[in-house]
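Long-time lurker, first post.

We've been arguing in lab meeting about whether S-adenosylmethionine would sit comfortably in this protein at all. Half the group thinks yes, half thinks no, and nobody has a model to point at. So I'm putting the question to the forum: if I give you the sequence and the SMILES, can you give me back a predicted structure of the complex? Inputs are below. Any interpretation is welcome too.
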Amino acid sequence: MGALGNDSAQSLRAALTRHLVTEGTIRDERLAAAFLAVPRHVFVPRTPLRIAYADDVVLMKRNQAGEAISSVSQPSIIALMLEQAAVRPGDRVLEIGSGGYNAALLRELTGPDGSVTTLDIDPEVTERARATLEAAGYDDVAVLRTDGEFGAPDGAPYDRIVVTVTAWDIAPAWVAQLRPHGRIVVPLRARGQTRSIAFDRVGDHLESRSSTLCGFVSMQGVGANYERLHPIEDEVVFVTYDEDQEDEPHPPDGVLAQPRLQVWSGATVGREEPLLDLHLWLASTLPGYCVLSGSEWSGAPAVATADSLAYLTSRPTRQRKVVQLGCNGFGPAAAELTARLTDQVRRWHALHRHGPGPAFQVYLSREERPAGFRIARRHSYIAVTWPE
Ligand SMILES: C[S@@+](CC[C@H](N)C(=O)[O-])C[C@H]1O[C@@H](n2cnc3c(N)ncnc32)[C@H](O)[C@@H]1O
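Top reply:
Settle the argument with this. Predicted structure of the protein with S-adenosylmethionine, as tokens:
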């Protein structure tokens, strides 16, 4: 690229960094300096500069079904996770899921006394990451091709592990390779929502320090895990369940065609208010919890029995920016399900709407019986508690 191209890359990079600082996503000055230093366009070859420096994901690869399987992540999501990771000069860092760009940012943050290892399951990705890291002057980042499930034992222990692909579980290798009191930041998916959670290692378990909504491509390989879709209307509306919910009763096909019972909770929220915590509260407190997908109510939390279903909805109020929460129920148990759902909506509204949100703990031993709502995974228990 000629001098003119470099100049405009630099000013676009400065504008992107300013934007992330102004909106409060970047708070740490060292992180701002890293964003200013790393030439993002080098990591997304053949992409116009304007797109390389937009606050947007750059898709690099789809699978045969057309799903995105590899990308260079959105700058604001990267920034959120790096704020959560709080990487210190001198840290040894492992990144799971490569793209080159985030590894370069991590290399800036770790400084001359630290180190960065990045790994990816896909050889195309590792080749690109290696070539682009070298082109951008970060040739001391170790790039490995391996399944992230097993981490990178040769470089362990790590002070920080940053997972940049959606995980359903915490692999035992990640905890084993994390230094005591070290931190892992991971986009963890459970009950239809993905949160980037920063966990500190406390003894042999993990305790959350922060969590925030995010979205990533799905983990492939040994740790791949899929939500189960159960059709309830002509294969266009589904309810989704996690792997550990296989024994939950599934509502019948056609349940939504039964007469609707609508019940309002009296609880109001902002029209644009994120309800991520409410959804997890409902998942934590209601047996039969599932999530609607593939329809106009996609993502709506629901509760089901073998013959009935109720899901969360909202309606406008006289105040333009405020909606009231309620639910629609269908089937013989509609009255009971809508009552349970609205009751929990009211409890969340009264106790947790303005609270700190849920805390998470991860135990690898099934012998542990942590308090709170427990989600059983292949290797771990994720426990969710609700400080008031
Ligand atoms: C969102 S991209 C990573 C973005 C990257 N960190 C960046 O700098 O923007 C997710 C990557 O995870 C990889 N991946 C998926 N499953 C994996 C696994 N089991 N082990 C390692 N990498 C995996 C994909 O190949 C993909 O390249």
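For your lab meeting: Residues 3-22 form the longest helix (20 residues). The mean pLDDT is 94. Whichever side wins, do check it experimentally.
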